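Hi Y.,

Following your request, here is the sequence exactly as I used it, all 252 residues.
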Amino acid sequence: MTNVFLVGAGPGDPELLTLKAFRLIQEADILLHDSLADPRIVRMASRHCEKIDVGKRCGKHSASQSQICALLVACAKTGAKIVRLKGGDPMIFGRATEEMAALDAANIAYDIIPGITAATAAAASLQKSLTQRSKARSLHLLTGHGAEGGLPAHDWVALTRSGGTIAVYMGANTLPGLAAHFIEAGMDPATPAIAVENASLHTQRSFSATIATLPRRLAETTTTGPVLLLIGAAMRETDIKTATHAMADSVF
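Below is the corresponding structure, written out as tokens. Let me know if you'd prefer a different format.
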């Protein structure tokens, strides 16, 4: 019987949890959660549940990935019901591969519960489709943060030639280099680009510019939450909201 669940917490708004994720969080005996998991979601766990913050934020690692894997395996061996709660979707830049490998090595069964990822949450709140028949026939999900803290090696020319929408996770700190690489690879400097902070939350802010001007635009403000970058013709500005995003009242 499976007692370990890798669960996607979604982009932040508790109402964007799947019903299955909601049920498992309430049933958990031990909850290992990321820092990006909204506190309201963590509080959904029962009072008897042991809540352990193993969050990893850029430049502020409270636990190494190997430590998280070891803790996950140790907790699973107790027979308790374990929920490993990850921001967004576990399978999109969620380091799920390492944790699945650790569980496999220990011969521990597990299930994975997907969550809404930041790119789709941001697109929904901006009311901008990531794919459009005439403008963007593909979607590319990239990380802007490499293992050593710099910009990862991507095929910038191929991405530029694709003509699709590019969603960059964890790219705020490396945005100047990222923009330079795209422009050097042939991207039109006037290509629309949007930075979205805290996608889906009431504190969401979006900054609309071009790939050439977005680095300066973002440098002129202070961001404290996770920032997603959306780049491509489908992001052309019409009525993008640059002020604090007004969200509907939550039932949580």
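The chain has a mean pLDDT of 91.

Thanks again,
Q.
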